[in-house]
């Protein structure tokens, strides 16, 4: 990152040619606010936006953004294989040529084997991924998938089975106690952590389960430093107390639960 002298002049104002642009971090779905300092078309410094819900904070993913922008292994151009498959030899070609060649190959596969011979797999794009799915729909193949099948779709399905709908954004407004287990939002999801601590100030208690005294642990009302690998034992012990000391909602369980 550039030092402060290259960003500000001697009067503390932005140096000549430097522009500050409000944007967002896309390394996770929290999308924290970012201030990007741009000069001659290049991002030279970033910092958290104090007027966004992350309140100026950025986790290690956000603060390392410039390492990704300028990384020598980053692919910034269309590349075409120059040697035999597996040789890892490539040549840079114009995007117009790349689009034309890919379109010709896709149409060839469609003509020879049918549209459903084409499949697409992708990672998260921090969006609804609608453009890729719409392209596959127009092309004529249903064979599109991405890591959502391993990530948030199972979460949504489990929530729907348990609660009848998918409460993606959990409503904690009336909660008296929050258990954070297997996560460290004070380091990885700053907007969420701000929400938790605001509710904590209003009286909600935070129980934190983690072997390590992390950034979140120091904010918790109760830190449970369980032995690594003993999570199941702790959860079963909690269930044992809840059931045998009759701490559950009898009417709710009788009406809505099986087994």
Any guess at the CATH architecture of the largest domain?
A: 3-Layer(aba) Sandwich
Main structural class: alpha/beta
The CATH superfamily name of the largest domain is Dimethylsulfoxide Reductase, domain 2
Helix content: 25-40%
Order of strands in the sheet with most strands:
1-2-3
Range of strand content: 15-25%
Question: Could you list some keywords that capture this structure?
Answer:
single chain, N-terminal domain of TfIIb, 4 domains, 10 strands, 10 helices, alpha/beta, 259 residues
Notes on the protein architecture:
This protein is of the alpha/beta class and 259 residues long. The protein folds into four domains: 4-69, Single Sheet (N-terminal domain of TfIIb); 77-113, no CATH class; 121-168, no CATH class; 172-256, Dimethylsulfoxide Reductase, domain 2. It has ten helices and ten strands. The protein has helices at 4-7, 60-63, 65-69, 95-113, 130-139, 152-163, 185-188, 190-201, 231-244, 250-256, and strands spanning 18-24, 33-39, 42-48, 78-81, 90-93, 120-122, 144-146, 177-181, 205-209, 222-224. A hairpin with an 8-residue loop joins strand 1 (18-24) and strand 2 (33-39). The longest helix has 19 residues, at 95-113. Mean pLDDT is 89; it is low at 1-5.
